[in-house]
Specification:
InterPro entries: DNA2/NAM7-like, DNA2/NAM7_AAA_11, P-loop_NTPase
Protein name: DNA2/NAM7 helicase helicase domain-containing protein
Shape: elongated
Strand order of the largest sheet: 2-1-5
Pfam family, one: AAA_11
Radius of gyration: 38 Å
Helix content: 55-70%
Keywords: Coiled coil
GO molecular function: helicase activity
Oligomer: single chain
Low-confidence stretches: none
Strand content: under 5%
Number of strands: 5
């Protein structure tokens, strides 16, 4: 199925959301469940039971009910127990971590990368930031591999599948882990991760269900055979339009066989259908469990929004401080002009005799200049004082808001 230009993500195509049926919507519920979904580039590949063979196949997707994500999040949050990281953040102790005492050999990482590595392998909560191309994924690969080698458990989450796979791929290639120690939850983006049965959760589940899948295949084969026999019977019935005794005798012999009677075939088909439904239901339950794990990862989205709000508040305060500094500088300059005007007037007033009479107009101009300079300086000082007052109020409000946001963020960036 070509999905170019479609906004449908693989996360939406799990569980019992997909059905293979005919072109009419009324027949969707009577269709067949989809066993596997895999996104390969611009193509969406699905696997259905062998007996699913509608004459004009269409792939239908059932829309999720309104509020399903909110309900899932509410139930997931209700099931949460202790949250040590959140408690540290509420107490203001989240930043009191310690770097690891040593990093990898100096020839492996750059100094800044080594510092990020020591933060990953140290204690406490750390924020490691770097622009594209600075080796963040390289540091993650090394840190994850070394932490696992020391028996540590690591949870790696990201807003995109490709980011998780890029970091995971490097760890998998080093083969420093045993099968089952690395588990990729969610739809992989990279083929080497999606096809690695020792890492991909979907493949792990499929291997552990090998016996159930084998039974499903056997039942599917029986259904295919029963369908072929039913079609053959229909062809024989149509052939009776032009009855022939010899052909009839041969057909009668076949039909008299108890194992080939319509009732026996119908019973076999019904049994096969029941077994197939049991197998499909078992697979569906496992797919639903897998979807629940994917939605748990999505629960980190509110924390991302809180981090964005946190950064915006910091940027707002920084902008206000810049404005205050600018106004204070203007007030300082205006004060300097006022001082210079006062000194100029004082010099003129200190003159005596003929020199004083000769500079009468200069003194009058100096008085006007001093009054103007005082007005400007006082206005600039008032603006600076008002700006400082606004900054103080805003800083207090933002500090309270940041404390509120920090108290509910359960994940680091």
């Amino acid at each position: 199925m070509d999905v170019r230009g479609s906004e449908i993500g693989t996360d939406q195509l799990q569980g019992d959301n997909l059905r293979l049926a005919g072109p009419e919507e009324s027949g969707v519920d009577a269709g067949h469940s989809v066993l596997d979904v895999f996104k390969d580039g611009t193509a969406l590949r699905v696997r259905v039971p062998e007996f699913a063979d509608p004459s004009d196949p269409h792939l239908w997707m059932k829309p999720q009910p309104m509020g399903f994500l909110v309900k899932a999040l509410r139930e997931g949050m209700a099931a949460l127990t202790d949250a040590p990281l959140a408690h540290l953040m509420v107490r203001g102790e989240a930043g009191a971590g310690r770097l690891a005492p040593a990093g990898p050999p100096s020839s492996v990482l750059l100094p800044a990368q080594e510092l990020a590595y020591r933060a990953c392998t140290g204690e406490g909560l750390w924020l490691v930031w770097g622009p594209p191309g600075t080796g963040k994924t390289t540091v993650l690969k090394r840190a994850i591999g070394d932490l696992m080698a020391h028996g540590k458990r690591v949870l790696l989450v990201s807003a995109t599948n490709i980011a998780v796979d890029n970091a995971l791929s490097g760890v998998v290639k080093e083969r420093r882990h045993a099968d089952g120690e690395i588990v990729r939850v969610g739809p992989p983006h990279l083929r080497e991760v999606a096809e690695d049965a020792s890492v991909c959760l979907a493949l792990m589940v499929r291997e552990r269900l090998a016996e159930v899948d084998e039974r499903r295949r056997a039942v599917a084969a029986q259904l295919v055979e029963a369908g072929e026999r039913a079609r053959r019977l229909e062809e024989l019935d149509r052939g009776l339009t032009h009855f022939d005794a010899v052909i009839y005798a041969a057909d009668r012999t076949r039909l008299d066989d108890p194992a080939r009677s319509p009732d026996a075939l119908k019973q076999a088909r019904d049994r096969a259908h029941r077994d197939a439904r049991v197998a499909v239901e078992a697979v569906t339950r496992l797919e639903e469990a897998h979807q629940a794990a994917v939605e748990a990862v999505k629960a980190t989205e509110p924390a991302q929004a809180d981090w964005q709000s946190h950064d915006e508040h910091h940027a707002h305060i920084a902008q206000l401080r810049t404005v205050v500094v600018d106004l204070e500088a203007k007030a300082l300059l205006a004060g300097g002009e006022r001082t210079a005007a006062q000194e100029h007037l004082d010099d003129l007033e200190s003159l005596k005799g003929f020199a004083r009479r000769r500079t009468k107009r200069d003194r009058e101009a100096a008085h006007i200049e001093l009054a103007t300079a005082r007005t400007r300086a006082e206005a600039a000082e008032r603006k600076a004082e008002q700006a400082r007052s606004v900054l103080a109020r805003q800083a207090e409000a933002v500090a309270a808001r940041l404390a509120e946001i920090g108290g509910r963020i359960a994940f680091s960036k």
